[in-house]
Amino acid sequence: MNRRPTFLITMLGFGFAFFYVPILSMVVYSFNASRLATVWGGFSTKWYVSLFSNKQVIEALTLSLKIALVSATLATILGTLAGIALVRFTKFRGRTLFSGLVTAPLIMPEVITGVSSLIFFLLLANWIGWPAQRGFTTITLAHITFSMVFVTTIVQARLLQSDRAIEEAAMDLGSRPWQVLWDITLPVISPAILSGWLLAFTISLDDVVITSFTTGPGSTTLPLLIWSKVKLGVTPDINALATLMVLVVGLGVVIAGIAMNRAEARRMADERLAYRAQG
Amino acid sequence: MNWFHRRGWRDLIIGLPYLWLALFFLVPFLIVVAMSVATKTPTAPPFSFGGEHPWVNLETYQRLVSEPLYLRAFLISLMNAAGTTVFCLLLGYPMALGLTRVSRSARNILLMLVILPFWTSFLLRVYAWMGLMGKSSWFNQGLTDAWNWLVPADWAVKSLPMMHSNFAVILVMVYTYLPFMILPLYASLERLDPTLDEAALDLGSRPWQVFLDVTLPQSVPGIIAGGLLVFIPAAGELVIPTLVGDASTPMIGRVISDQFSQARDWPMASAVAVALLALMVGPTMLYSHYQARAEGSK
C-alpha cells in the first residue's frame, strides 16, 4: 500500500460528510424563519421560543428523564450482579440458561421485545389485576430488562481483564467476602459500572419501539412525542429540539471522553511512578 | 479460589438478575411462543386454547406460509437488510482501513466522531434524512438538478421520489447502522501487522494485490462480525420503514406491529415473531462461533 492512501482518505472524508451533513442541515434549518421546514426563509430563533413554551415537550422530557434515571440505576445494579455472577461463578445450576438470557435481549428485535412485554402485562392485568394501568411502571420495568444486559456485557469485559489475584490476596489476609466485593471488586470495575449506567441511561432516553408498546394513556415520553409528530412529516420545532439534543449529547460525550483520557493518562503516570519507586 | 462462595452471597448475586430476566424476558417470550399456536377469538384477551380447535392450532403457521403478504414481507426485510449490509461494508471498509492509516491523535478524534452519532437520538437521525429527502429540500433539489443535467430532456423530473421507497429505507439504515460495521472492522484491521504489507510490497506485489492477498483475508472475522451486527437489527427494523418506507410493501417488523395492534390478531403477530427469530438463529450462531474463535486467538 502506498504511503499516502489518497483513496482511503477520500472515503473517510466522504463517510464523515455522510455522517454529519444531515445533522448540520437539521441544525441550520432549526434557525429557519419559514414554516415550511425545508425551504429557507431567513434567520429566526422563534422555534426555540415555541419549543420552550410548549408544555407537552417539557412534560415529556421530565417523564423521559425520570424513567431513564430509575431504569438506568436499577439496570446497573442488576446488570453488574449478572456480570459478576457470570465471570466469578463458573459453575452453578442453570448457568447455560442464564448466559443465554443475558445475550438474547441484545439480539432480540425490539418489536418482538415490545409485543411480548405488552402481552405479558396485559395477561398479568387480566389474571392478577396488576398492572391496572400501563405507564411509568411498565415502561420502566421493560427498560430495565433490555438495558441491564448491556451493563452486563461491559462489566463482564472489565472483570475478565482485571487481576483476580488481588481479590485472593485480600481473602488470604482475612477480608470477609463482602469486604472484598466492596473494597476491591467494585472499585476495580467502577469505570465499567459508570459506562454501563451512561449507556443504560441513553438507551432508555432514546427508546421508541419498546416504550410505544409498554406505555399507556397519558404517559408520553419525549421519543414518543417526537415519533407522533414526525410520523406526520417534517416540522421546524423538531429541528430546534434535535439541535438542542445534539448539542447537549455532543458536549457531554466530548467532555466525558476528555475526562476519561485524562484519568487514563493519570493512572498510567501513577503506575510508572510506582514502578520507579519500587526499582 | 472461591472467594465469596458463601451461600447467601452467591444466591443473591446470581439469583436477583436471574429471577428478573426469567420473569420479564423469558416468561413473556414463552408466552409469545405459546400464543403462536393459540386460536384468535373475539373475546378479551383475544385468544384461546382448545375449544373448537385442538390445543395446538397450527392454522396460523399455515396462513403464514400460504398468504403472500407474509412471504413478501419476509423477502423485502431480508433484501433490505442484505442491501444495508453490503452498502455498509462498501463504505465502512475503506473508512476503517483509512482510520488505521492516520496519525494516532487524529485517529482518536475520528473514532469519537464515529461513535458520537450513536449517542444522539436515533429517531432524530432518521428525521434528519426525512428533511433531506423531502421534495423541496436543498439535497433533493441538488440531486434533481444533477439528474436532469445527466439524462435526456424527456427523463427530466421536478424532484426525485426518494421518500417512501425501499431506497430510502436502505439509505437511512446504512446511515444509522454504519458505526456497527466500522468499529469491528477497525478492531480487526488495527491488529494486523504492517510489516506483512511491506514484505509483500518489497517482494513486488502491487498495492491492490497486497490488499486482496494480505489485508482482506485477515479481516474476514471483522467483516463477519460487522455484517451480522448490521444485518440482524436491520431485518427486524420497525421505526425506519414506518417513517421513510413504502407502506404498500411493509417489512416484517411492521407486519408484527400491525397484526398485533390493528388486526388484534395476537396469534398471527406471535407466529410472525417466532418465524423472524427462527430466521435469525443461523446468523446469530455464526456470529457467536466467530466471536468465540476471535477470543480464542487472542
From TrEMBL, chain A:
Family matches, as PROSITE patterns: ABC_TM1
Keywords carried by this UniProt record: Cell membrane, Membrane, Transmembrane, Transmembrane helix, Transport
Keyword Transmembrane attached: yes
GO biological process entries: transmembrane transport
Pfam families noted in UniProt: BPD_transp_1 (PF00528)
Domain ABC transmembrane type-1: 61-259
TM segment ranges: 7-31, 67-89, 101-128, 140-160, 180-203, 238-259
Listed InterPro entries: Bact_Polyamine_Transport, MetI-like, MetI-like_sf
Record localization: Cell membrane
CDD domains in UniProt: TM_PBP2 (cd06261)
Membrane topology, from the record: Multi-pass membrane protein
Keyword Magnesium: no
Record-stated family: Belongs to the binding-protein-dependent transport system permease family. CysTW subfamily.
Protein name: ABC transporter permease subunit
UniProtKB/TrEMBL annotation, chain B:
Family matches, as Pfam families: BPD_transp_1 (PF00528)
Superkingdom, taxonomy of origin: Bacteria
A GO biological-process term: transmembrane transport
Location(s), subcellular: Cell membrane
Membrane topology: Multi-pass membrane protein
Assigned GO CC terms: plasma membrane
CDD domains: TM_PBP2
The ABC transmembrane type-1 domain, residue ranges: 74-287
Metal-binding as UniProt keyword: no
Protein keywords: Cell membrane, Membrane, Transmembrane, Transmembrane helix, Transport
TM stretches of this protein: 12-38, 69-97, 109-130, 167-189, 268-288
Keyword rRNA processing attached: no
Family note: Belongs to the binding-protein-dependent transport system permease family. CysTW subfamily.
Protein name: ABC transporter permease subunit
Organism: Stagnihabitans tardus
